[in-house]
Amino acid sequence: MARYTHNLTVALPREQVQDELADALRACDLEVLHQDKDYLVAREVPGRSALAQLVTVEILINDVPVEPEITRVNVVFKNEELPLSRNNHCSQIYRQVRQALTEERNWELIGSVSGI
After folding, report:
1. Who contacts 25 (Cβ-Cβ below 8 Å, separation ≥6)?
2. pLDDT tens-digit readout, 52-104
3. With CB atoms 3.0 to 4.6 Å apart as the test, which of 59, 62, 71, 101 could cross-link to 40 if both were Cys?
């Protein structure tokens, strides 16, 4: 199973972050399946990739604010594909979404940490 993580700290109130995240995911051709005040789940639309390659993105919006205008976000990308190469399908979607989130114009990126 391929799995990648990305943690962001952004200058935007928590209430506004969720809509911006959902818009960024949709812009990357991901379908938002579940959305509530502190959690989003999105995935690739079936039919574009093999079933084992379909990437699911889970986003947790930190419930404890650092400051009123600062929000921390944890993002996990995963699929059932074995990551036999560095440039596997999950890593491609990870890089695409990570770039969209770090270049988001509606917030100021304060910090960003990526992991595998």
Report:
1. 32, 40, 42, 57, 59, 97
2. 999 999 999 998 877 888 999 999 999 998 888 888 999 999 999 999 999 98
3. 59
Mapped onto helix, strand or coil, the DSSP state of residue 75 is: strand
62 neighbors 85 (Cβ within 8 angstroms): no
Residue 15: name the closest of 51, 46, 61, 48 by CA.
61
Q: What is the CATH number of domain 2-115?
A: 3.30.310.80
pTM of the model: 0.90
- 68: three-class secondary structure by DSSP: coil
Amino acid at 5: T
What DSSP designation does 64 have? S
